[in-house]
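no rush on this but wanted to send it before i forget. theres a chain ive been looking at and ive put its sequence and its fold in token form underneath. please have a look and point out which stretches look like helix strand or loop to you. thanks a lot i owe you, the record is right below:
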Amino acid sequence: MPTAAAHRPLHLRPRFIALVAAGGVVGTALREGSTLVFPTPGGGFPFTVFAINLLGAFALGALLEFLTRTGPDVGWRRDIRLGVGTGVIGGFTTYSAFAGDTALLIAADSPGLAVLYALGTVSLGAVATSLGILVAGLGRSVDTGPEEAE
């Protein structure tokens, strides 16, 4: 018989909270390291954050498609989705830096570049996600046998 903890929503289970938090630490460190190694010149186009968000969109699309094709969202697939997808990729990509960079471009009297950056990030992010899904979908679905228990 399932325990009461098994019926608790995922966002209230300490194990899953820890997976997301640990992944978020890794993803955030990767993003910060990338922006330190490849800084944006003052008032210039924020290529690093732009590339991070596109890479993250591609990776998340590919990851979720792969996990969906390999079986139900239980066991190791749920752990990977939460730890890598929500945690690492969620920490690596950044809406706050995207919004901040857009505001900085506007403040630097570059409203056209700000609009290009904002629209480019959103539209190319959707394309990158779709490409990730497409690439991951090129493989066959894997039959994992009976569903795993949580």
Summary: The mean pLDDT is 90. Residues 20 and 82 are 6 Å apart (CA to CA). The longest helix spans residues 111-137. The chain has five helices and no strands.
